[in-house]
Amino acid sequence: MTKAIEVKNLEVSFPTPSGYSAVVRGISLTISPGERIAIVGESGSGKTMLGLSMLGIQPASAKVTGEVIIGDVDMVSANDATARKLRGNYISMVFQEPLTSLNPVRTISSQLTESVRRHNKMSKSEAEDRVLEILTSVGIPAPKERMKSYPHQLSGGLRQRVMIALALINKPALVVADEPTTALDATIQAQILDLLRSGMGDAALMLITHDLAVAADVCNRIVVMYAGNIVEQGPVAEILGNPRHPYTRGLLNAIPKFDKARPPLMPIPGSPPTITEVVSGCRFASRCTYADSQCTASEPKFIDNLACFHPVVGASK
Amino acid sequence: MFSSSGWSLKVSPENKILSAVDLSVSFKVSNALLRAVDTVNFYVNSGETVAIVGESGSGKTTLALSLIRSTQPTSGQIFFEGQDVTKLSEKNLKPFRKNVQMVFQDPYSSLDPRMNVGQVIGEPLKAHFKGTSADRNERAAELLVSVGLNGDLLDRRASQFSGGQRQRIAIARALALDPKVVIADEPVSALDVSTQAQIVNLLQKIQEERNISYVLVSHDLRLVYHLATRVVVMYLGKVVEEGNCDDVVADPQHPYTAALLSAVPALDEASRRDRIVLNGSPPSPIARPTGCSFHPRCPIARPECATQTPELQSLPDGRKVACFYPGELQAHVSFTSSK
Hints:
- The complex is a heterodimer.
- Chain A is an alpha/beta fold.
- Chain A has helices at about 45-55, 80-90, 100, 110-120, 125-135, 145, 155-170, 185-200, 210-220, 235-240, 245-255, 295; strands at about 5-15, 20-30, 35-40, 65-70, 75, 90-95, 175-180, 205-210, 220-225, 230-235.
- In chain A, strand 1 (about 5-15) and strand 2 form a beta hairpin.
- In chain A, helix 5 (about 125-135) packs across helix 7 and helix 7 packs parallel to helix 8.
- The longest helix of chain A has 14 residues, at about 125-135.
- The mean pLDDT of chain A is about 95.
- In chain B, helix 3 crosses helix 4 and helix 4 packs across helix 5.
- In chain B, the strands form two sheets. Chain B has an eight-stranded mixed beta sheet with strand order 6-7-8-3-9-10-12-11, sandwiched between helices. Chain B has a four-stranded antiparallel beta sheet with strand order 2-1-4-5.
- Chain B is globular.
- Chain B has helices at about 60-65, 95-100, 115-130, 135-145, 165-175, 195-210, 220-225, 245-250, 255-260, 270-275, and strands at about 15-30, 30-45, 50-55, 75-80, 85, 100-105, 180-185, 215, 230-235, 240-245, 315, 320.
- Chain B is α/β, with parallel strands linked by helices.
- Classes of the chains: A alpha/beta, B alpha/beta.
C-alpha cells in the first residue's frame, strides 16, 4: 500500500461524573508511507489512547469520533470484521511489555503462523517459512530453534524482537509501537532502537514515547502532545534545535545532559490538567512562563505545525 | 601502568562514611548458587554522591540493599563511620538505621496506602524517638515544607498525590531521622520528564543544605553524570570500572562502560552513527562465563579473555578497571556546553 494513513479530527473521550471528557482532543495527522514518526508526550498526554484508537482497540468505555483512514477504509466507523482485516494486514501494534502481550502457553511458531494464516491463504509449512524469514529479518539468532520456544524461554530483548516480527509479519503499512524499549536494559534498548530505525522494511512506524532522545534516535519527524492536543510537530532537527512551543522547549531543558558545568535542570512547574479539569484557553498556560491574558482567554489553533500564541524564538541550548 | 594499591590514595579513609569491603551476596536458586554481588569494594564519602550503574542482573540493587543491611551479605564487611555493622543485631543497628535511609523507585508502591502522610513520615520518628503524635506531626509538617509540599497536607493519603508529589513524600520520610546517607534506587525513573527534573533539583538542594551522602542506583547515565561525582559500573555482580564521572564518561576504560555510554539514546546524529551495539543479552549470573564475564559480548575480546579473569586494578589517576585492554574501545559521547 502506498497511500498515506490519515487521522482526521480524532477525538477519544471517556465518561466522567460530569459527562464525557476528551483525552484526545480532535487530532489530525498524516503518516506517509515508510515514514518514521514519533508521538512524544508525558503520562496523560493522550499519546497511548491515540495509538490504540487508530487500531480500533481502545477501551470499551471510550467514545471515538473523527476518522482514521487506512487505505480507503475508515477504522473508526468500520465494523468488527473489517477492523480485524485492517489490523495485522495494514496496521499493527507493538506493546511495551512483550511478556504480557504474547501467549505464554503457545510456542513462538504457533503464534506467528496463526497470524500469517489468518490473513493469507497459506499451508502450514508455507506459513512457517514466512515466520522463519521474518524472525531472521528482525535479528533473532538461531531462528529455527527459537520457533519452538515459549515466550518465557526468551530474554526480554528477544521477546521484543518476536513482538516486532509479529507486527511486521503481514507487511502492514504502519506499525504503532508504544514505548517498545521502556522495559528493556540500556544495551538491549540500543539493539531494538537500531531495529526500529532500519529493520522495519517498507512499513511506516509510529513510535509512542515519553523520551525525546528515543524519538530523535529512531524517527524523522516528532509530534509533541500535551493534555490531548498536538502542540508542535516538525523534523527531528527542528524540534530539537529550534523548538518553538514553550512545552517542547521545557521538555528539552528538563533532561540532564553531558555538560561539564552541570547547569541546574529547568523543570516545568506544576503538573498537567486532570481529565475532568475545565481549562479555559491554552491547556499549557498555567505552567507556561510566556503565558498572558490572551492564552487564558482563547485556545491557540494548530497552525503552521504549532499551537501557541507566543512561540519561542532562537536555538535551544 | 597499574599500581596495585587497593583504595584510591586521594581519599583518606576517615572520609568514608559508608563502605563495603570484599562484599559478596549469594542466593541459592534451585541447587545452583547465584552470586548476585561478587567481592565488591565500595565506599561513599561524606557529602558525596556515588552512582552505581549496570543492567538487570548486575547486582546493583542487591549491593544497595546490603549496604542498608536489608539483604544479609554472604561474606565481607560493611562499615559505617568506621564501625563494622555487618553482624550487628537489629537492636544494636538502631543508630545505623537512623543514619542510612533509602528512597525507592516506585512511589506508588513504597508508600502505605492506608496511612496518611503524617503517619508515613511520622513512622520512623515513632520508631526512634519518644514524643507525642503532635510533636511528630509538627516535625512531619516541617519536612513536607522542606521537600516543597504544603505543610497542611498531613491528613491526606498517598493516593491523593501525583507521582512526583509521592516521591517528595518518600524523600521527606527518608529525611525524617536526619540521616547521613540516603540510598536512592532509581529515584526518578518512574516519573515524567518534567517531574524528574523537579525531584533531581530537590535532591541536590537537600544535599547542599544537609551535607548528606547519596548512593544513587540508576541506569540513566545522563542523570548519573549530572548528580554524581563518582561512578561504579557493575556487570554480573562485579565492579568492572570505577572513577570520577568526568573521567569515566569522557574516556571510559572498560569496553562495557563504553557500550553503556554509547547506548544512551542520542539527541544528535554522530552518537547514533558510531554506536557500539553489543550482541545478545547479559548471561545469567548462575551460568557465569569463564574468564572475563563480559567476553562473550565484548567487541574487543581476545582469546585470553575467555580463559583468564582480569582483576580490578588501579590506574595512575586513581580510576579502576577490570580489563586486559583498558581504554581500547571508546564511545562517541556528545557533550554540550552551557558556557
